[in-house]
């Protein structure tokens, strides 16, 4: 059984007006998985509903505690992209589990979002990778501690 934890981030953002006012809504992960014909084999738990820029050490400790306490050895975490690498680094000392963090550059509710692809890619990566902590974004897998977000290019790259 795959454990999925959601923390918020762009993947679950809901925009209200042209001035980019937003809040983090209910996670669309179950809907995104259903679109990929994945209906079972996972358990979903929402941990946070935050933009990752608002996440602090206490939030990362909450994620670490949830992952540590999970009976599953395969864990998928949806996360905002701005501080995803920091959370992956906090999780990197864990052993015996395969942990994949993913997110989206555009909200899942938008027509041209990378969310569906990233969730599907992370789902597959999670089942194929050995134990460790990884970020799976836009068709690439990066090990925790060896990745950064390139804000200008809007992509992840090796650090």
UniProtKB/TrEMBL annotation:
PROSITE patterns: ASN_GLN_ASE_3. Keywords: Hydrolase, Membrane, Transmembrane, Transmembrane helix. One of its GO terms (molecular function) is asparaginase activity. InterPro entries: Asparaginase/glutaminase-like, L-asparaginase_N, L-asparaginase_N_sf. It holds the Pfam family Asparaginase. The keyword Hydrolase applies. Residues 2-150 form the L-asparaginase N-terminal domain. The chain crosses the membrane at residues 115-137. Its EC number is 3.5.1.1. This is Asparaginase. It comes from Marinobacter salexigens. The lineage of its organism: Bacteria, Pseudomonadati, Pseudomonadota, Gammaproteobacteria, Pseudomonadales.
């Amino acid at each position: 059984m795959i454990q999925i934890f959601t923390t918020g981030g762009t993947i679950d953002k809901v925009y209200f007006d042209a001035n980019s006012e937003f809040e983090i809504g209910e996670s669309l992960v179950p809907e995104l998985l259903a679109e990929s014909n994945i209906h079972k084999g996972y358990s979903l738990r929402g941990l946070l509903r935050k933009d990752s820029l608002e996440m602090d050490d206490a939030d990362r400790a909450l994620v670490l505690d949830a992952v540590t306490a999970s009976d599953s050895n395969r864990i998928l975490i949806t996360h905002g992209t701005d501080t995803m690498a920091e959370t992956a680094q906090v999780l990197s000392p864990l052993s015996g589990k395969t942990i994949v963090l993913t997110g989206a550059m555009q909200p899942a509710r938008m027509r041209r979002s990378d969310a569906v692809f990233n969730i599907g890619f992370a789902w597959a990566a999670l089942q194929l990778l050995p134990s460790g902590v990884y970020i799976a974004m836009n068709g690439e897998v990066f090990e925790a501690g060896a990745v950064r977000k390139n804000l200008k290019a809007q992509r992840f790259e090796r650090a």
